[in-house]
């Protein structure tokens, strides 16, 4: 039921229903206030009487277990109430994970590692957010690993990342992304370099599984792993690889029975594979929109957003001072490989890149590694720069960077396939 008044429209939601809306118009602003009852946005509770503001790109569902009244004002492109939601199944999954966590606590073991898998646009990131929020709301401190290099929820695309979740996501801004562990991959799909992708995932899994042992609460809370929407052929193999690397205890499959059955067949029988429905509210994104949202994430990395603007720096770096590398050398036939090396080894080799005009607009990853002989794949990323100009005459590039010049001494930069046109006015 909804009623218009001078301050906006009041929506009265029954128990177990949600209000969904989307904002597509630039400069549109929607304000939402919880007037009575209880409501949550992807697992974060709304505070009564507080005004929440949403802008362009927002695709939102405000769910209530008990029923509530919401006041909504502003221009939306889509807005409707729905009683068909999978939230009860999702909260049951949380309850099952809590059992594993309790067991882990009793025997001082590791809590559950759960992977969320499914094709594109089925709500994988949203389910991760819901499960993480529910976990912190009951006092857990889980890790969130994001292996989706296409639409990363923690870092920008082309990287995989892990963060510790210590408090519920902010309604408007999502999880705080302080002190993430980020590993460079450099492509927007695992297919860009499958061997490297598996190597980076293995590294991330080893490091996070070990580091969780250091903190009792995190150890028993476990890890929620978000994955790519590529679930066929090699994409499927990547999922199996990740499940093994993380020693997944459970795999939640969203919306695809075939994937569910394949996993049931291929993972060890002690891994719980659960098929879950996707929410009817999840919005499908076209290729163009996915590209836009990748660009938007990069733009926010450099420039922040309206609430928290950032002011990046731009400076020149001479080619001779640019220690630029790329992971993955072109394949050589086996007959040309040194004895003992396989063609696959080339895929994880760190090779020097000679700067040319082709670098223009590319994202370069600043690694904490100090030399290409270090374990570059397993070294945390310090940040990102973007090449905004290449001057072959002056033998220099202009870099857009969140930090002022100079680049840290001895730092190495890693080439990424990702590009960003810096047209910020
Ligand atoms: N119940 C819902 N109602 C309305 N919008 C929703 C709902 N659930 C998710 N969304 C929105 O749908 C969009 C896609 O969801 P999400 O990013 O979780 O999907 P995904 O499967 O992780 O996508 P990807 O293929 O990029 O990995 C998001 O913008 C999210 O806010």
From TrEMBL:
Residues recorded as binding ATP, renumbered to this chain, are: 18, 59, 121-126
Localization terms from the record: Nucleus
Q: Which Pfam families match?
A: Clp1 (PF06807), CLP1_N (PF16573), CLP1_P (PF16575)
Residue span(s) of domain Clp1 P-loop: 118-304
Start and end residues of each Clp1 C-terminal domain: 311-422
Q: Which HAMAP family match?
A: Clp1
- Put simply, this protein is called Protein CLP1 homolog
Q: Does the keyword ATP-binding apply?
A: yes
Give the top-rank taxon of the lineage listed in the UniProt record for this protein: Eukaryota
Protein task: Required for endonucleolytic cleavage during polyadenylation-dependent pre-mRNA 3'-end formation.
Q: What is its main location?
A: nucleus
Q: Which UniProt keywords apply?
A: ATP-binding, mRNA processing, Nucleotide-binding, Nucleus
Q: Which GO terms describe its biological process?
A: brain development; mRNA 3'-end processing; tRNA splicing, via endonucleolytic cleavage and ligation
What GO molecular functions are on record for this protein?
Answer: ATP binding; polynucleotide 5'-hydroxyl-kinase activity
A GO-annotated cellular component: mRNA cleavage factor complex
Q: What is the lineage of its organism?
A: Eukaryota, Metazoa, Ecdysozoa, Arthropoda, Hexapoda
Q: Which family does it belong to?
A: Belongs to the Clp1 family. Clp1 subfamily.
- Clp1 N-terminal domain boundaries: 12-104
């Amino acid at each position: 039921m909804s009623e218009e008044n001078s301050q906006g429209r009041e929506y009265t939601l029954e128990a177990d229903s949600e209000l969904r809306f989307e904002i597509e118009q630039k400069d549109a602003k929607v304000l939402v206030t919880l007037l009575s009852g209880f409501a949550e946005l992807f697992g974060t509770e709304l505070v009564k009487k507080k005004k929440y503001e949403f802008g362009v790109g927002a695709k939102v569902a405000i769910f209530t277990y008990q029923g509530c009244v919401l006041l909504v004002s502003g221009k939306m492109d889509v807005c409707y109430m729905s009683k068909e939601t999978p939230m009860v199944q999702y909260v049951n999954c949380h309850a099952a994970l809590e059992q594993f966590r309790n067991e882990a606590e009793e025997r001082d073991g590791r809590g559950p590692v759960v992977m969320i898998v499914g094709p594109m646009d089925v709500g994988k990131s949203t389910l991760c957010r819901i499960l993480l929020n529910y976990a912190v709301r009951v006092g857990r401190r889980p890790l969130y690993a994001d292996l989706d290099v296409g639409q990363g929820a923690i870092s920008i695309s082309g990287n995989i990342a892990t963060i510790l979740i210590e408090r519920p996501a902010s309604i408007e801004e999502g999880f705080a992304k302080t002190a993430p562990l980020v590993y460079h991959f450099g492509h927007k799909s695992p297919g860009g370099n499958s061997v490297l992708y598996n190597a980076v995932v293995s590294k991330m899994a080893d490091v996070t599984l070990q580091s969780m042992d250091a903190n009792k609460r995190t150890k028993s809370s476990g890890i929620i792993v978000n994955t790519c929407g590529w679930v066929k052929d090699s994409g499927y193999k990547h999922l199996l690889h990740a499940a093994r690397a993380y020693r997944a205890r459970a795999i939640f499959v969203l919306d695809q029975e075939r994937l569910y059955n394949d996993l049931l067949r291929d993972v060890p029988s002690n891994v719980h594979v659960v098929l879950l429905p996707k929410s009817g509210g999840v919005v499908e994104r076209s290729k163009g929109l996915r590209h836009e949202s990748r660009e938007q994430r990069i733009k926010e990395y450099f420039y922040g957003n309206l609430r928290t603007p950032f002011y990046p720096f731009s400076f020149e770096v001479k080619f001779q001072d640019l220690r630029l590398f790329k992971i993955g050398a072109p394949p050589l036939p086996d007959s040309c490989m040194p004895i003992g090396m396989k063609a696959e080894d080339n895929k994880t080799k760190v090779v020097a890149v000679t700067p040319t005009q082709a670098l223009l607009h590319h994202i370069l990853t600043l690694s904490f590694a100090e030399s290409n002989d270090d374990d570059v794949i397993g070294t945390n990323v310090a940040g990102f720069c973007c090449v905004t100009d290449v001057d072959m005459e002056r033998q220099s590039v202009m870099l857009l960077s969140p930090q002022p010049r100079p680049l840290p001494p001895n730092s190495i930069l890693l080439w990424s396939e990702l590009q960003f046109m810096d047209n910020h006015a």
